[in-house]
TrEMBL record:
Ranges for domain DAHP synthase ferredoxin-like: 1-73
Coiled coil start-end: none
The protein's name in its UniProt record: 3-deoxy-D-arabinoheptulosonate-7-phosphate synthase
Matching PANTHER family: PHOSPHO-2-DEHYDRO-3-DEOXYHEPTONATE ALDOLASE, PROTEIN AROA(G)
Domain DAHP synthetase I/KDSA: 101-348
Annotated keywords: Transferase
GO MF, any single term: transferase activity
Pfam families: DAHP_snth_FXD (PF18152), DAHP_synth_1 (PF00793)
Family annotation (Gene3D superfamilies): Aldolase class I (3.20.20.70), Phospho-2-dehydro-3-deoxyheptonate aldolase, domain 1 (3.30.70.1140)
Length: 377
């Protein structure tokens, strides 16, 4: 059960404390408070976990500060869509709105290599009108001898470049809880010139202790990649791990499934699951065409496979795109063969714009159809 409190409720008020005291006396029930910060107001939600079946919705709605009650109706208690659940599916971070209606492109370096390449990529992103990027400082690799990333040593010049070019959010993978601390310390030392979205990679989707640690911190939103060898349900439960610890600012990323059935692509593209995730949960959905396809190969029409798959995901309603770019792909230390050249970014973005326009027209068509036929019932 979820209690939605009145907007901008005062946590120091007598009424708020009376509500918490009452909830603390409920047998077999644990109350977890979570705040959702929007541009104009802060919403507070209280998750009741445990034996909630016997709780009366009317009694809970009558508690001080409670505006309405949501009875959980799916396995994804916090992030799921529930019956009569009118909560908005969005959050704002560092001035950027993320929702199931928005679309953001995070183009950048899969792995940070040199300050010069970082700055060139940041400039290309900014010149293209984007305010978000991806920069890999920590790189988990299958081969123990492959480049593992510069780690915390590169964070100062990555954040400095982001601030210089007006980049508001940098998506950055973490593989250990100490990486979160290192990012936090580097941001503070730099004066917070930008923001960071923590990324949980596909190899760590079921690293439950890492999920708990990242879920307990409230400073940064989280991008969770689907596990490459597990079911969609298992990956969605991994996202619920994050939210159950208090951080519901989660974006779910589809990045392809590891199977030879997808050959010659690097992974089997799973972007048909975009609307499925949006139906089952309130999370914005990201697609990662770079790691799904894994190459710059194209068809006779002159369009790269990576752009075709991106269009499929965008037309299906994707809300975020992770894209590898690099000033010199042949010199990239990680995944160079799949990186777009900087001059190709405007072409890619225009192709995305066309796909997004198609999605919006399809959405409007569906709304008009349902409105017309519902009125006749």
């Amino acid at each position: 059960m979820i209690l939605i409190l009145s907007p901008d409720v005062d946590a120091k008020s007598t009424e708020y404390q009376e509500m918490l005291d009452h909830l603390g006396q409920l047998p077999g029930v644990t109350a977890r408070v979570h705040q959702v910060h929007g541009r104009e107001q802060t919403l507070t939600e209280v998750y009741l976990i445990g034996n909630t079946a016997a709780l009366d919705e009317g009694d809970m709605a009558a508690l001080p500060c409670v505006e309405r009650v949501v009875r959980v109706s799916s396995d994804y208690r916090i992030l799921g869509r529930h019956k009569d659940d009118r909560r908005a599916a969005h959050f704002t971070y560092n001035g950027v709105d993320f929702s199931q209606d928005s679309l953001h492109v995070f183009a950048g370096l899969c792995a940070v290599d040199t300050p010069e390449h970082v700055d060139m990529a940041m400039k290309a992103v900014a010149d293209a009108g984007l305010t978000c990027t991806r920069m890999g400082a920590y790189k988990p690799r299958t081969n123990p001898y492959a480049f593992q990333g510069h780690g915390k040593d590169c964070l100062p010049w990555v954040f400095e470049s982001a601030g210089h070019h007006g980049i508001k959010v940098v998506a950055m993978e973490v593989t250990h809880d100490q990486h979160v601390d290192e990012i936090h310390e580097a941001l503070e030392a730099a004066g917070h010139p930008t923001g960071v979205m923590l990324q949980i990679g596909t190899r760590n989707t079921q690293n439950f202790e890492l999920l708990k640690h990242v879920g307990r911190q409230k400073d940064y939103p989280v991008l969770l990649k689907r596990g490459f060898g597990i079911t969609l349900e298992e990956s969605l439960n991994a996202a619920e791990y994050l939210a159950s610890e208090g951080n519901s600012r989660v974006i779910f990323c589809l990045r392809g499934m590891k199977t030879h059935l997808g050959d010659p692509h690097r992974n089997f593209v799973d972007f048909a699951h975009v609307p499925v995730v949006k139906r089952l949960t309130r999370m914005p959905v990201c697609i990662d065409p770079s790691h799904s396809v894994g190459s710059r190969a194209g068809s006779p029409d002159g369009i790269m496979d990576m752009m075709h798959t991106t269009a499929q995901g965008v037309i299906a309603g994707a809300n975020m795109i992770l894209l590898d770019i690099h000033p010199a792909p042949n010199k990239a230390l990680v995944d160079g063969p799949q990186a777009l050249r900087l001059e190709e970014l405007p072409w890619f973005l225009e192709d995305v714009r066309l796909a997004r326009e198609t999605y919006e027209r399809r959405r409007d068509l569906a709304r008009a159809f349902h409105a017309e036929h519902n009125s006749k019932r």
